[in-house]
Write a structure and sequence with these properties.
Oligomer: single chain
Largest sheet: 7 strands, mixed, barrel
InterPro entries: DNA_bd_Ku70/Ku80 (IPR006164), Prok_Ku (IPR009187), SPOC-like_C_dom_sf (IPR016194)
Strand content: 15-25%
CATH architecture of one domain: Beta Barrel
Function: With LigD forms a non-homologous end joining (NHEJ) DNA repair enzyme, which repairs dsDNA breaks with reduced fidelity. Binds linear dsDNA with 5'- and 3'- overhangs but not closed circular dsDNA nor ssDNA. Recruits and stimulates the ligase activity of LigD.
Protein name: Non-homologous end joining protein Ku
Radius of gyration: 45 Å
CATH topology of one domain: Ku70, Chain: A, Domain 2
Strand order of the largest sheet: 1-2-8-11-10-9-7
Keywords: DNA damage, DNA recombination, DNA repair, DNA-binding
Helix content: 25-40%
Distance between the termini: 151 Å
CATH class of one domain: Mainly Beta
Number of helices: 6
GO molecular function, one term: double-stranded DNA binding
Order of helices and strands: EEEEEEHEEHEEEHHHH
Length: about 350
Amino acid sequence: MLRVRSIWNGAISFGLVSIPIKLVNATESHSISFRQIHLEDGGRIRYRKVCELEDKEVSGAEIGKGYEDADGTIVPITDEDLAHLPLPTAKTIEIVAFVPADSIDPLQMDAAYYLAAGGAPAAKPYTLLREALKRSNKVAIAKYALRGRERLGMLRVVEDAIAMHGLLWPDEVRAPEGVAPDAKVNINDKELDLADALMDTLGGIDLDELHDEYREALEEVVAAKAAGETPPESPEPAKGGKVLDLMAALEKSVKAAKESRGEEDAEVTHLPARKSARTAPKQTAGKKSTSTAKKTTAKKSTASTSAKKTTAKSTQGARKTASKTTTAKETTAKKTAAKKTTSRKRTA
């Protein structure tokens, strides 16, 4: 049994079966609330309920309900008036239908409650309804009255308990008119493939691992201020750049997601085109590689030929230089021999 104060006592009407129950809140708020204070002296700012006719403060016992008409006239409404409303759901959660769970629009979901069995006599019919909901894979649609108005609810099984989600009436949900972009946008297959890759990389998550980081940071600030210390400075948020290229942004997102998961290969791999309604590109990566290889080989051949020509020219130049040197030496030798012969003749 939940040790939480019930906010409503009544019964579930299941055909001719009546199940006494207690309505208990299924959720709780952990948000930090603040008080309004006077900045000059830190005094609390309080709201007082004052009668505008007598200009005096009144107590809760003196306050009732009233409906303001279009002309400003106040029509008093008493608790007795509300108790005599012709509502069969005043103290009853009346099940009106059983439908598949996916037929309920999540936009209609409101507050959540647990329905606790009201005593030992309620155990048998409570368990019967719970097991019937389990076996049918359906949810129950019910009407009930709470806080002065009739409401719509959905009953479903949560572990071994029956939970009820308050539902908005269909006419309370606005249509999404004017929300979607007016401009015509074309999304190509590569962008969809990258978006799919990003979703696959991010994968799923256990919701129990998520927590309110803002509340934790706020608690640190409150604790530091209470201790007379300087509150910790928060890191500057990353500046969001202007997205100029959607493909580039998707590729970077996939790479960042892989790196955050510690994957060794953080390179973005383009997904192959899907067979359904996807056309293959005119030129494959293999052809591009072959063409590039051919161009590279041609460049190497040209460079080799140029090198050979340069070497041949150098060799010919060297041969000419050597020939000239040899000829010059022979000429010098002949001149020297002639000089020696002339000198001998004169001496004789």
